[in-house]
Amino acid sequence: MEKLVITGPTQLKGEVHISGAKNAAVAILPATLLIDGICTIENIPNISDVKLSCEILEALGAKITWNTPNEITVDTRNITTTKAPLNLTSKFRASYYIIGAMLGRMGEIEVGMPGGCKLGARPIDQHIKGFEILGADVTVEKGKIYAKGKKLKGSNIYMDIVSVGATINVMLASVLAEGTTIIDNAAKEPHIVDVANFLNTMGADIRGAGTDVIKINGVKKLNGNATYSVVPDQIEAGTFMLAAVASKGDLLIKNCITKHLESITAKILEIGGNVEDYGDSIRVWCKKRPNKASIKTLPYPGFPTDLQPQMGVVLSMADGTSIINESIWESRFQYTEELNKMGAKITAQGKTAFFEGVPKLYGAPVYSSDLRAGAALIIAGIAANGVTEVYNLEHIDRGYENIEEKFRKIGAKIERIKE
Ligand code: EPU
Fold first, then answer.
1. Which of 164, 193, 330 to mutate to test the pocket of ligand 1 (most atoms within 8 A of CB)?
2. Which residue has its alpha carbon closest to ligand 1 atom 27?
3. From the alpha carbon of 191, which atom of ligand 1 is closest?
4. If one looks up domain 22-229 in CATH, what number appears?
5. Residue of the nearest CA to atom 23 in ligand 1?
6. Which of 61, 112, 367, 382 could crosslink 86 through cysteines, CB 3.0-4.6 Å?
7. Is position 39 annotated as part of the catalytic site?
8. Distance in Å, CA 194 to ligand 1 centroid
9. How far is the CA of 372 from the centre of ligand 1 (A)?
10. Which of 39, 54, 117, 286 is catalytic?
């Protein structure tokens, strides 16, 4: 078992380089299945969810070459099976993209029910509804999903819920369908635009990604023979922005798209932090105890649920009582119990949590319940007095590349220790 041992407090200072976006990469990799050719993907984050996506592609017959730690070439000319390995697909959430991509490519697929972080119920009814409207038959039984639809036909699909996964998955299934698909009430996250840009680079005809209506004109074939660079990770950038505030530090966060960070910037300014926006980098610093705030997580461009725990750490030390309303996931306050072990005073009731700000947190052994909870606990450990041990690192390694090295370079006293 591994743990991170953090000795605080440290005021983080210096420059940090943001990696490619996890949630774009784990969709772009399955999207390569739609290409009957070879493509190269740059700025791939070297994280365990990406490695898992690559293993699934390889099991389906794709050839993957790592050119550098952050660049791969994928050859999908020879897809040999329509059965994705159940042990791999049930390990993480984004394996559901294999369904949309393989319906498009092969007209058939069997996968395990997607796993991933335990954030409460994670239904996929909107994905299935979309596939069925396009003409596929979908059966879910005994932990497996079986989808078949040899000739998908473009259609109009209204999403009952704004869903990142369902929007991308239906987009994947309709790229090679006959005719035009319109996805209404689509999600607008930057990684949706990135997946559409990737597919368009390979020959797809997708318009309107980034708005709530996406139009996909089906094409006969995607050719590949192109190189694509994954968008910078908005959530990783936001994690370091909030780490700067929580540690009363001063960070220059490089290789990000600051337009994607507006909801975070606005909240940091509201609580008394400082932000300078340079377009592709952003400086964040904070010299005083932050003010209290009220936050509600919302789909993009609202405040992202994936930064809620990191913001929770900041508010746990703010002046006054803050409220966070989590509107996306039913069970994303598990980290508050861990912060309370560090001296925080947080009461979580269902989807709402009250943060009675304390002046200081104190080091303690804590357990990450999911990816973003893990990032939040690292930030708490850096800001806290004394030694914090963070356990369950497998969650953190799913989505953050070289996290302890990046924090160490900006001053944190953090070590990964094997027990
Ligand atoms: N929902 C349904 N039915 C569906 C799909 C979603 O009811 O068919 C509900 C969900 O239960 C949730 C809401 O709709 O309440 C939004 O879910 P969404 O589908 O947008 O989430 P997702 O695609 O499963 C992605 C990210 C999550 C991130 C959410 C919200 C990936 C692989 N995961 O999940 O990322 O929290 O969007 O932005 O892209 C993370 O990176 O830590 C993470 C959990």
1. 164
2. 306
3. 39
4. 3.65.10.10
5. 165
6. 112
7. no
8. 17
9. 14
10. 117
Indicate the residue type of 81.
Answer: T
Distance CA 340, CA 310 (A): 14
Determine the CATH number of domain 2-19+233-418: 3.65.10.10
Under 8 Å between Cβ of 42 and 15: no
Same fold, 2-19+233-418 and 22-229: yes
Atom of ligand 1 nearest to the CA of 23: 39
Category of 225 on φ-ψ map: left (φ > 0), alpha (ψ -120 to 50) or beta: left
pLDDT in tens, the chain (419 residues): 899 999 999 999 999 999 999 999 999 999 999 999 999 999 999 999 999 999 999 999 999 999 999 999 999 999 999 999 988 888 888 889 999 999 999 999 999 887 666 766 678 999 999 999 999 999 998 888 999 999 999 999 999 999 999 999 999 999 999 999 999 999 999 999 999 999 999 999 999 999 999 999 999 999 888 899 999 999 999 999 999 999 999 999 999 999 999 999 999 999 999 999 999 999 999 999 999 999 999 999 999 999 999 999 999 999 999 999 999 998 899 999 999 999 999 999 999 999 999 999 999 999 999 999 999 999 999 999 999 999 999 999 999 999 999 999 999 999 999 98
Cα–Cα distance measured from residue 300 to residue 411, given in angstroms and rounded to the nearest whole number: 32
Whose structure tokens read 């290409």?
35
Whole-prediction pTM value?
A: 0.97
CA contacts within 13 A on the Cβ side of 130: 33
- Residues contacting ligand 1 via CB (< 6 Å): 23, 26, 93-94, 117, 121-127, 161, 163-166, 187, 305-306, 328-329, 371-372, 399
Contact (CB, 8 A) for 338 and 330:
no
| Domain spans, the chain | 2-19+233-418, 22-229
